[in-house]
Amino acid sequence: MNIQEFMSAYTNHPVLFIGTGMSLRYLKNSYTWDGLLSKIAIDLFGDDREYLNIKSRNSENGSFKYEAIAEELQRKFDEILEQNPDGKFKEINDEFFESMRSGRPLSRFKIYISKLLANLEYKEHANIELEELKKARKNVGSIITTNYDKLAQDIFEFNPLIGNDILLSNPYGSIYKIHGCIDNPSKIIITQTDYKKFKEKYELIRAQLLSLFIHNPIIFFGYNVGDENIKEILKTIFTYVEPNSNTAKRIRSNFLLVEYEADSNNQDIVEHDIDITGFSTIRINKIKTDNFSQIYKALASLTLPISAMDIRKLQSVVKEIYTGGNIKVNFTEDMDSLDNSDKVVAIGSTKTIKYEFQTTSEMMSNYFKIIEEEDSQILGLLNKQKITSTQYFPIYGFSKICTEIIEENRLKTQQKSKLDHLISEMKDACKNYHSSISNIINDENISATYKNGAIAWGIWHNQLPKDEVIDYLKNFENKKGTEYKKLLCMFDYKQYADAI
Question: Which domain of life is it from (predicted)?
Answer without folding.
Answer: Bacteria
